[in-house]
Write a structure and sequence with these properties.
423 residues, globular, Arc Repressor Mutant, subunit A, 3 domains, 15 strands, five-stranded mixed β-sheet
Length: 423
């Protein structure tokens, strides 16, 4: 059995997340090789919101026709980028792709359509690689339905099927707002679908909305480009023409392989938490697959069979990870990723992602916040311990990179962050 240290595990995760070295046209990590190859691997195996359709400007390795493939490859390798907050998604991806800006990400999403905005793990909004849609929809349709899903109480199984079919038909060649989609669903199903019975922030939503999660999991809908500040929905088939969800068992096996590539070694309990599924169900899934057991600091964990190569060097580098960056949300064990006072300062009720974090040598070493004023991006960093001179220089370089990605002029203040956790 392979015995690993936390340092080895951390170094490999940083590499595979393209946080050790950002991916370029021929670099980076993916489940089957380079970042640019991860798209093909996924296809073979397979709130503010992100908006805008501007073309990529400037020069460099991430600009031009090849950038969309590199961006999608990185997103595939990390199992998607959390996208409930627009600037956070753009920063998460931009940090991992050499020369990329928020415009690069927007072009990959809305123009090149190598990314798709939809619901991923835990039912949360993510940017996923479009080539991975068969895997994601096949797997998400096969997991146990979340206990909070209101379709259980507001819709019969037959009504859910009717609504999902109506959504798929209405969005086949259209981009519709919620109000427009309500009209189309009601026209295809009946007045009952429009009954305003679903609790929603002091208001009531139409009954059919209770089936939106099921429709998204099955690949009947995804997000379209915004109309101003209003969200639209469309068919994922417009991003990946002719796509069909993979069969459930094959899709689940492929998703576990992708997950372990990015976040392994990991346990079935870690996977259950990441995907928001019952632990017993996840344990049975792991037991059915060809995995290798290893130990990390003496604790058993799993990797995909044969994936036992780890870098000889330890983790290094300074990164400013935004809200809900998948590295801090998906990596375990938490007590090693958030050592000492980092757990108290950077976790919210034990939950990762609610604070942007300062990452030093792969572990959380502080929190930070950014505030935009015109073209100026004001960055405040609160380290948990005094910074060494070399770390301070690396931080200053990282702040400059954040400014480039967000297409603004950055300033840096070292001091307390007074902003609380994101909800």
């Amino acid at each position: 059995m392979t015995t690993l240290t936390w340092s080895q595990v951390c170094a490999r995760r940083l590499h595979r997340h393209a946080l050790a070295t950002p991916a370029g046209p021929s670099g980076g990590a993916g489940p089957s090789g380079a970042a640019g190859q991860a798209v093909a691997a996924g296809q073979a195996g397979a709130a503010d919101t992100v908006g805008g359709t501007d073309t990529v400007g400037g020069t460099g390795s991430a600009a031009g026709a090849g950038s969309a493939g590199v961006v999608a490859g990185v997103v595939s390798a990390i199992c998607g980028a959390h996208a409930q907050v627009a600037s956070a998604a753009e920063l998460s991806i931009g940090l991992r792709v050499a020369g990329a800006t928020r415009t690069t990400v927007r072009q990959a999403l809305w123009t090149d359509r190598t990314l798709v905005k939809t619901r991923g793990p835990r039912g949360t909004v993510h940017l996923l690689a479009a080539a991975d849609l068969p895997m994601w929809t096949g797997a998400l349709a096969a997991i146990p339905a979340p206990p909070h899903e209101q379709a259980r109480t507001l819709l019969s199984p037959e009504q859910t099927e009717q609504v999902v079919a109506a959504i798929a038909d209405a969005l086949r060649d259209a981009e519709l707002t919620t109000a427009e989609l309500t009209e189309e669903v009601v026209a295809r199903t009946g007045p009952w679908a429009g009954d305003r019975v679903m609790d929603a922030f002091g208001d009531k939503w139409p009954r059919w909305i209770a089936a939106m999660e099921a429709a998204t999991r099955r690949g009947a809908m995804c997000f379209g480009p915004n109309r101003g500040r209003t969200s639209t929905y469309t068919s994922p088939a417009r991003w990946l023409p002719g796509f069909t969800p993979m069969a459930g068992p094959a899709a689940l096996a492929e998703l576990v392989r992708h997950y372990l590539y990015a976040y392994g070694p990991a346990t079935s309990a870690h996977f259950a938490q990441w995907l928001s599924v019952p632990r017993r169900w996840a344990a049975e899934l792991f037991a059915s697959l060809d995995l290798d057991e290893v130990t990390v600091e003496g604790t058993p964990a799993w990797v995909t069979a044969g994936d036992t190569d780890f870098p000889p060097d330890g983790p290094s580098g300074v990164r400013l990870l935004p809200y809900f960056d998948v590295y801090q949300v998906g990596c375990h064990p938490r007590e090693l990723l958030f050592p000492g006072g980092a757990a108290q300062r950077a976790l919210a009720g034990g939950q990762a992602g609610n604070y942007p974090v300062l990452l030093v040598d792969g572990a959380v070493a502080g929190v930070w916040h950014q505030r935009r004023s015109g073209r100026t991006v004001h960055v405040t960093v609160e380290p948990l311990t005094p910074l060494r001179a070399a770390t301070r220089r690396a931080l200053e370089a990282q702040v400059e990179r954040v400014g480039e990605i967000l297409e603004g002029r950055p300033t840096l203040t070292i001091g307390p962050v007074s902003v609380g956790p994101h909800a």
